[in-house]
Amino acid sequence: MTRLTLKGTWGALLLAGLFGVLPASALAGVRIKDITDLEGSQSNHMVGFGLVVGLNGTGSKSTFTQQVAVDMLQRFMVTTKIQADLKGDGVFKSGNIAAVMVTTELGPVARVGSRIEVTVSVLDDSTSLDNGVLILTPLKGVDGVEYVVAQGPVSVGGFLFTASGGGAGTAAAAQKNHPTVGRVVSGPIVVREARGKVVCDGQLKILLREPDYETSRAIAKAINEKFSGSAFTVDAGTVHIFVPGDRGTNLVSFISDIMALEITPDTPARVVINERTGTIVAGHQVKVSTVAVTHGNLAIVTSNEPIVSQPLPFSKGKTKVLPRAQLGVAEQGNTVRVLEETMTVADLARALNAMGASPRDLIVIFQALKKLGALHAELVFM
After folding, report:
1. How many CB atoms lie within 10 A of CB 320?
2. What is the pLDDT tens value at each position of the chain, 382 positions in all?
3. Are residues 69 and 178 in the same domain?
4. Are residues 343 and 361 in the same domain?
5. Which of 60, 178, 199, 303 has CB atoms 3.0–4.6 Å from 124's, for a disulfide?
């Protein structure tokens, strides 16, 4: 087998930065809790619609937002003459109000009275939520039941400042991050629990985040080594665990012991490509059959060569120096390499790097190898 050597420091950069090659030892010792979830312990999405008030002119003056504010005031029995005539004459106009969507995730361990965080996002044409306050907003689950009530000051990790352009043209503006999205911290309160059922008929179910038959088998084996005969695999993404009789009274300790076990997960052969940035990340399982690859470019060079223009005899003309366009086409020497069957992606990287291939070139080469059937890995495009 012919070994292709690296040229210069680009080889090290290619291996470390482009492919992200890790030694096999880096894949060992992964805790079960880091690659799995317990069935019944998932969070629940909550959503609500509300108003943010107290904005310094960065709110919306749209009819929609003003009408929502009027409806809210009417629920508070605000029935002055101005409020009564709002729907007809549109007297109420304020730039200090924003209509927002409020979202959060309610975990299975949250209890009534627990305080959580919610995310507030502008729904109308408001430009900033800075210094705003979210008015009491109920958040519902997919079942239509209210689980959380949110209220409090909105924290925005950014700003937006504008200055009038006057007669000079467009107003100047300075912005950092997205001031139209903020968070309400410690204000929202859980009013209804969304508990999950982790243990069912004396069994636990572990769900793999990346289903794989070898990984699920390794998880069951590790659990059985500690708790004999308690785990078995159902499919590539599920492992069933019987709770031993002597551990049924202390499920927290039992689950903690299981989740702390370490295994070596198996990963599929996969090459992830981002064509926009020219980034390629390949797994250590990628293999390539023996192929021949040629890599070369056509170079076209244009230049101006000065020539002397001599006038005809007795024409009273003058001798001048004029430019003449020159066009040269040169085909750069193609590099033909035979890529022997590689055992790791590092060998593949060395072979392609020896050809002087850039990241953009590597993308095309990987696509060609896959088309040929010589790349034994899945190509994933971002």
Report:
1. 10
2. 333 333 333 333 333 334 444 444 445 589 999 999 998 888 899 999 999 999 988 888 888 888 888 888 888 877 655 544 545 544 567 889 999 999 999 988 889 999 999 999 999 989 889 889 999 999 999 999 999 999 999 998 766 666 655 555 556 666 666 789 999 988 899 999 988 788 888 889 999 999 999 999 999 999 999 998 899 998 999 999 998 887 767 888 889 999 999 999 888 888 888 877 777 888 777 877 777 766 665 443 445 567 767 777 766 667 776 666 554 545 555 555 555 555 556 666 666 666 666 777 778 878 888 888 878 888 888 7
3. yes
4. yes
5. 60
Look at residue 304 and tell me if it is in a domain: no
Nearest one of 134, 127, 136, 120 to 56, comparing CA atoms = 127
Q: Do 58 and 107 lie in a common domain?
A: yes
Is there a domain that residue 169 lies in?
Answer: no
Q: What secondary structure letter does DSSP report for 2?
A: P
Residue with token string 């709770």: 243
Domain check: are 183 and 279 in the same one?
no
pTM over 0.85: no
Measured CA angle at 352 (ends 351, 353), to 5 deg: 90
Q: Which of 204, 314, 210, 300 is nearest to 259 (CA)?
A: 204
Task: Look up the domain containing 288 and give its range.
Answer: 1-27+266-297+333-382
